[in-house]
Design goal:
277 residues; alpha+beta; Thrombin, subunit H; six-stranded antiparallel β-barrel; 12 strands; 27% strand; elongated
Length: 277
């Protein structure tokens, strides 16, 4: 086989092939007529040229296809990154809107109550008992002292039990050490709302008169008795009513008006409480 490539006939065929292809390329111009030699050469080499053109076109299509795939992959990655960025921005915007709404409600409350109040944010809470105590970011510097009532626009939160210069600890009304004098808005019946600590997020409404007409759905507010919690602040609503100890009184289950699991901003009432009853 190696000897064949060195024979004169191979060299002649190679020259004819190259010359023919060159002639075809040179003569492939727009003309009205072709010579007999050109027609013969075209007839001889056209199949080969078509084959080369076909392969070339397929290669170009293949490279173009893979190029589009790479481009689409990059575009897809960019769109995914942009989508994640927009999701994060949307979440931040939603959080800001929710915070703005809460602050507007608190501001409305501050402007429409008779008491002087200091706004504060919840900065810590008891991890062992979510419904026991919280810590707020305001203290003595803002005039806060022990036994001051802590509220939201929804109702009573609790009272201050410890104070530093820049923070205060608040006992929630759901703590088992909490006890508040309350009154029914509808019937005007008096009772005491007691926290139950870890046992329940509900309050125990105790010492209701046996003849009282308290029903599920009745709303109870602070009575002002005791001089700690101002009168008229919403405490919660009745969910169940039952007979009390030895059948001498009634008691009920009270659902707090405040959702303590979502507590973020509060007000501390810092002016002296006056008992009107």
């Amino acid at each position: 086989m190696a000897r064949f490539y060195r024979k004169p006939i191979f060299i002649i065929l190679l020259i004819l092939l190259v010359g023919g292809l060159t002639l075809v390329r040179f003569t492939a111009q727009e003309r009205t007529s072709t010579t007999l030699i050109e027609q013969s050469v075209n007839a001889l080499f056209s199949p080969l040229q078509r084959g080369v053109t076909f392969v070339q076109n397929k290669l170009e299509e293949t490279f173009s296809f893979f190029g589009r795939i790479i481009s689409l992959k990059k575009e897809n990655e960019q769109l995914k990154a942009e989508n994640e960025r927009l999701k994060a921005a949307n979440n931040r915007l939603r959080q800001l809107e929710e915070e703005n709404w809460r602050l507007r409600k608190l501001l409305f409350m501050a402007e429409n109550v008779e008491h002087k109040m200091v706004p504060a944010k919840v900065i810590a809470r008891d991890p062992s008992n979510w419904f026991s105590q919280i810590v707020i970011n305001k203290g003595r510097r803002e005039g806060i002292g022990s036994n001051m009532a802590v509220v939201t626009n929804e109702g009573i939160v609790g009272r201050v039990i410890e104070v530093t210069n820049d923070s205060a600890k608040v006992m929630l009304i759901t703590d088992n050490g909490s006890s508040i004098g309350i009154r029914s808005r509808r019937t005007r019946d008096l009772g005491v709302a007691k926290g139950q600590g870890e046992q329940s997020k509900f309050l125990l409404l105790d010492y209701l008169a046996l003849e009282s007409d308290v029903r599920p759905g009745d709303v109870f507010v602070s009575s002002g008795l005791g001089g700690v919690i101002p009168e008229g602040i919403v405490v919660g609503s009745v969910t169940e009513v039952e007979e009390g100890y030895l059948g001498l009184t009634k008691r009920a289950k009270l659902e707090p008006a405040v959702d303590f699991s979502k507590l973020e901003e509060v007000f501390v009432i810092i002016d002296p409480v006056t008992n009107s009853e």
